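Handout, section 3.2

Students often ask what a structure token actually looks like in practice. Rather than define it abstractly, here is a full record for Sigma factor G inhibitor Gin. The first block is the sequence as you would receive it.
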Amino acid sequence: MVCGEPKVEGMTIVTQFICTSCENEMVRTEVEEEKYSFFVRRMRQLWVKFHA
């Protein structure tokens, strides 16, 4: 869902897979960092798909 790369280790939220490396990067990203808004947009897509 985040990086789009096929990986085995990670977690599934609703129907979307988040690999362990992306999960770790999301957790470590500070709100002030540019990448934070990227992660927010990706997670918002999950929310929209769940409520569609």
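Discussion prompt for tutorial groups: The chain has a mean pLDDT of 90. How would you have guessed this from the sequence alone?
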